């Protein structure tokens, strides 16, 4: 028990220091997840000494597990519905394919577990253990990313000293019209700008293959129609990704003598955390204002963000999964 307490205190201190020195960091979510898991394991071990405490604790875990399953099913339904609705949109082809592959893998795993129960075979058990480990790994990172997102959202705030607002672009409808998600970002940016006395409004977005003008130009036209001063609009029309949005904007800010961290960026709410991680790496503001996403589209968009961050560190994840499967295999064999 003493060892568990030391580990819990160590994780708690590490998380506290990480939050103080690194407000935007993936490790915050990982440390929080490890701390939560360690606390649950320790309480479970402690409760075994006392019959009624153990029964109440197991009941609580069972109820929490049932709730988690129900929430997971609801999120799964949301993902499938949105994937089906966007099946003809080429922009979502990759993420929809990933969603389909994920659900097929889960069904295969459930089928294999049932088969092992009916007819246990050692080679089938090895496959089930391996697939279970991989599934658990991705679930861990899904939850860790979510906790990191919530921590960032709680600590994030816009202050009145911001010198600029950066609006991250999004795809245009029909090649030249502001989409609903981009409109929500612009409306949010204009609302923030009113509170900050109309600072520089940097509109960042290049031109896609299916677009007849740049996203920056479309955003500028929208802001002008809404009455924002044209002289306070800055068009950054060369970027094709969030990282380039940040990097090209930083170059303009440095050229103008504006401190890159003295601003706020505006994007969709689901995108704020990953964008902040990129902003921190580039060296611009990590403060954000998130435009609300429709509930039915949020989880599909959030899943895209999760996939993007996992892909960004894909080689590390592949190494971790390989080492984990080797270790799991050795434990299983022994």
Features:
334 residues, alpha/beta
Topology diagram in text:
Layout: H1 2-21, H2 26-47, H3 51-85, H4 93-118, H5 122-155, E1 164-168, E2 172-173, E3 177-178, H6 180-195, E4 200-204, H7 215-225, E5 233-236, H8 242-256, E6 263-268, H9 272-282, E7 288-291, H10 295-312, H11 314-333
Parallel strand pairs: 1-4, 1-6, 4-5, 6-7
Antiparallel strand pairs: 2-3
Helix pairs in contact: 1-2, 2-3, 2-5, 3-4, 3-10, 4-5, 5-11, 8-9
Q: Could you tell me the radius of gyration in angstroms?
A: 23 Å
The tally of beta strands, per DSSP, is 7
Strand content bin: 5-15%
Residue share in helix: 55-70%
Q: How would you describe the shape?
A: globular
CATH architectural grouping of the largest domain: 3-Layer(aba) Sandwich
- CATH C-level category of the largest domain: Alpha Beta
Number of domains: 2
What is the topology, as strand order, of the major beta sheet?
A: 5-4-1-6-7
Supply the helix-strand structural class: alpha/beta
Q: What is the string of SSEs from the N terminus onward?
A: HHHHHEEEHEHEHEHEHH
Major β-sheet profile: 5 strands, parallel
Pfam families: DUF218
Protein name: YdcF family protein
Transmembrane segments: 6-24, 31-51, 57-77, 98-118, 124-152, 315-333
Keywords: Membrane, Transmembrane, Transmembrane helix
């Amino acid at each position: 028990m003493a060892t568990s307490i030391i580990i819990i205190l160590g994780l708690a201190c590490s998380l506290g220091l990480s939050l103080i020195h690194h407000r935007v960091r993936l490790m915050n979510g990982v440390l929080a997840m490890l701390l939560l898991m360690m606390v649950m394991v320790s309480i479970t071990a402690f409760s075994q000494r006392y019959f009624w405490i153990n029964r109440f604790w197991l009941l609580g875990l069972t109820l929490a597990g049932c709730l988690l399953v129900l929430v997971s099913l609801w999120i799964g339904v949301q993902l499938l519905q949105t994937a089906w609705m966007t099946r003809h949109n080429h922009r979502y082809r990759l993420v929809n394919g990933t969603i389909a592959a994920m659900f097929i893998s889960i069904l295969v795993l459930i089928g294999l577990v049932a088969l092992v129960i009916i007819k246990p075979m050692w080679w089938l058990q090895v496959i089930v253990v391996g697939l279970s480990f991989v599934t658990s790994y991705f679930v861990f990172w899904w939850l860790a990313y979510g906790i990191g997102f919530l921590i960032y959202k709680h600590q994030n705030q816009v202050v009145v000293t911001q010198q600029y607002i950066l609006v991250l672009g999004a795809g245009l409808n029909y090649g030249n019209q502001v989409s609903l998600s981009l409109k929500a970002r612009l409306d949010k940016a204009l609302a923030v700008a009113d509170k900050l006395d109309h600072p520089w409004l940097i509109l960042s977005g290049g031109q896609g293959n299916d677009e007849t003008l740049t996203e920056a130009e479309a955003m500028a036209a929208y802001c002008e129609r809404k009455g924002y001063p044209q002289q306070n609009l800055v068009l950054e029309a060369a970027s094709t990704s969030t990282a380039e949005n940040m990097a090209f904007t930083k170059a303009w800010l440095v050229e103008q003598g504006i401190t890159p961290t003295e601003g706020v960026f505006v994007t969709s709410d689901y995108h704020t955390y990953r964008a902040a991680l990129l902003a921190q790496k580039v060296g611009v503001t990590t403060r954000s204002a998130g435009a609300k996403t429709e509930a039915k589209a949020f989880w599909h968009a959030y899943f895209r963000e999760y996939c993007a961050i996992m892909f960004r560190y894909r080689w590390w994840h592949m190494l971790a999964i390989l080492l984990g499967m080797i270790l799991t295999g050795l434990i299983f064999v022994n």
